[in-house]
Request: fold
Amino acid sequence: MTCCLCFCAAVSAQNKAPKWMEKSYKAVVSITTYGKDNNQLATGVGFFVNETGDILSSYSLFKGAAKATVTDADGTTTDVESIVGSDALYDAIKIRITPTKKITFLPIINDPIPNGTPSYLLAFSTNKKDIKFAAGAITEVSKLKDNYKYYKLNIPLADGQANSPILTVNGEAFGLAQTDASGNKNISYALSASYVNQLAYTSANFISSNSNDIGIKKCWPKDGNQATAVLYIIGSMQDPKAYLATINDFIKTFPDSTDGYLTRANHYASQRKALSSDVNEQLNLLNLALNDFQTAAKLSTKKSEIWYNQAKLIYNVAITDSTINNAAWTKQSAFEAIQKAIQEEDLPVYHQFEGDMYYNEGKFKEAYNDYTIVNNSDIATATSYYWAAKALQNISGFNFGDVLDLLNKAVDKAGTVTPDAAPFILERIEWRLRLQQYTEAVADYNLYYEAVAKKVSPNFFYLREQAKFHGGDLEGALQDIQEAIKQSPDTEDYLAEEASIYVRQQKYTEAFASLDKALKINPKFAACYRLKGVIYLRQKKNADACTALHKAQELGDPVAEKLISQNCK
Reply:
């Protein structure tokens, strides 16, 4: 009974603003948002929660906004600098301005606030003699998220008062006023101020659709690693000039992070023509890139990484732009940079890049030596084995078996029956065929077939047929070429190949049928006439053979002339 009397007394006393409101009312501000066309979108309210310029308000007020301003109780208007965090589901946002004077703010009390707690709604006012407020109490407390709460109050909500602060009798903010969804104006709700105050972007939600619905700059995630991730992601979303501004803002926010300087160095160099059409300015951007590398080196405890990144950038610029007349941006400078990286820390990844440069310059022995270092380390990959094989085969006196061994390791490293292994299997097939290892080549074709989930073109069956043919598996070869014909019936080469198999099998009737089909598609297919001539010769039909061979010769077949000289006198 005592608690009830106290509560009633508190409410009855609320027709007059508490003493603390004479100062606290200045924490409530008016907010105006504008679209891309600079036309006004909406107006609403919010309130300061610290002296550094952070304000809590509603997400819906800012949706679609490209600009926003904050006007305080004294009439001072300031642009919104950035969005600290937002939540479209709970219609909440935290924004930031750069203060031009001392800010009056409302302290936030953490959840939960007990049911029955007397409360105040403090609306936007411009005169302490006419402070607009309403009083009531919490009538229901429900769970919002984690430890945060959602409050129901018997405080009526007038037009324009949504997002006003809801406070305790001591002037501590615990909620943002929200309307009743059913339209009941005699009650209101309060979204936890503690929840809204902790909103901050992370790498996961920085580029979400909700955050992208607001065109105002967003604050970087507090965690440096997450901010760096965001920096990289934004690079694919902005034009070069806008991205340069983003990088500069990152560096301003994280001045001791090497990532910002390395990213800007890469941007200066790789996007120099997009950043400026002036040739002299483009050269200056290259100089600025080197300056950023120097700054990054001063900040970094791992100088080798800076040299490594510098080597990659210089080499890429050197091989893509031959017009640059600057000794600092040559292939030789790139080699010097990667060698400095190796001197600082002899890591396999640096040898991988050095090997790639050597390979591109045709220095295959040096490239092979670098790739060997990589392959003897724990970062060996299918690709490093593959390029070692490619480099080795360009070295005089190389061993075929060593090349094949490297390709075996590439296939194994890629996972054997996986799409990643497919290109390495094809390379190994080439070497199997060179070494006349037809049985092994067919086995690799079968492996490739499985690796690509049997998604192959008709030409695959033609190529596998060739290996089977040379390996003496005529029935297997016939099955493959017929599968190729089934998938591509108008390819005359496949029909001619089918005829060749029939000839080896002495099935001349079938061979003639295949050749006639091929010639129907391409009447000038010289090899078909030559093959007809060969069949006629085997059938002792020399006249018909010579007619066919002369036709082949007429159409340019290089082998027909020899057959004619031997059989047509």
Q: What stands out?
A: The first helix runs from residue 2 to 12. The radius of gyration is 39 Å. The CA atoms of residues 30 and 42 lie 11 Å apart.
